[in-house]
Amino acid sequence: MITKKNALLCLMLLYSLCTVHSKEKYIGEEYILSPAVSQDSVTEVTREEMKRAMERVYLDKGPKPDATPKPVMEIIEKVKQPDHERWHIKYLVDTDEYAYAYILLPLHRKKGEKLPLVLCPHPTADTGKDRVVGIHKEPAKDAKEQAKRENRQYALHLVRRGFVTFAPDRAAYGERRREGGYANYKKEMAICQQELSKKYPGWGLSGKSVYDLKKALDFLTDIEFVDASNIAIIGHSLGAWDAILLTAFDERVKAAVVNSGGMVNYKPALWKDQNALRNYLSNENYKVGLNVDANFFLRLAAPRAVLYQYSLFDSLNRGNPQLLECFRDLTEYYKKVNKAKKADINYYLHGYGHDFTEESRELAYKWLEKRLFGQSTQK
After folding, report:
1. Closest Cα partner for 246 from 360, 121, 133?
2. Pick from 282, 285, 221, 280: which is nearest to 250 by CA?
3. pTM of the entire structure?
């Protein structure tokens, strides 16, 4: 027998099943569903709105762009190697702070020749920039460690292919660790963040890295042997985050290789619901969530060239069940913002772990050669 009470419960259940919820109001990485709104009557969020919102979160709480004069590169040492020259340099990034880096340049370049520049931010390694140029204090313990070292020496590999490469220390790494500080990068990063927060409340190390890289580009583009119209960035792991972040915030970067980092936590509403997107971007209680914000970093990189390399078995990036749907939306977005209606956004999914294997590197290097030299330099 169907009573009035049962009938009422059935109606309530039916209503809850049939009601559509698609508008998402985001707070950080959390969201609250509210009734759907027709997208036909909603003004589309512009790229400038997206960029301004990300700048507010990642850059505005740091020093102003003109807080220090244009950096002047100071050469500490020049070391000649069999196939390249390595410059050890420093440059001012804040009123009382220097950054340190290596510039690697091919030996046999023609007089007056300008070469493409590739920025090579390092992965998480206590020694920072040394990792990507192949400098190690001790020999590798075994073949496995040697292979791991080889897989991260992309600044060294690329200078051998004719690029000028730039390998900086991130804050809290390499020569930017405190004197007598911890060898453990996690402790150094925590202390560095504490000091940064005292000087610039609310500013984080991700934004700091972008700021420092932008300051470096200010003087790198003036070097006589650098082709300022052909600049790329390549990074693995932590360096991959720096790669996609800088590309999003600096139009001087023409191409980016993002390997085993910069992973996106795909949120469909941030692509398909303009109200949800605008709410997220304007939320005053917003807290930095890199994986969610990658929805914006990847869009802001468009229509420039991006190679996005990702392991299906990366232990640091489990989940993301809608990754293919994200790639579809991203490809369509690149076509939309490109005047030629083409998308130079490329994906390589492999079955290795959190690494930059020879197969991945060879693909990345040839990809960069084609976009910066116009052809491969390797036969």
Report:
1. 121
2. 221
3. 0.88
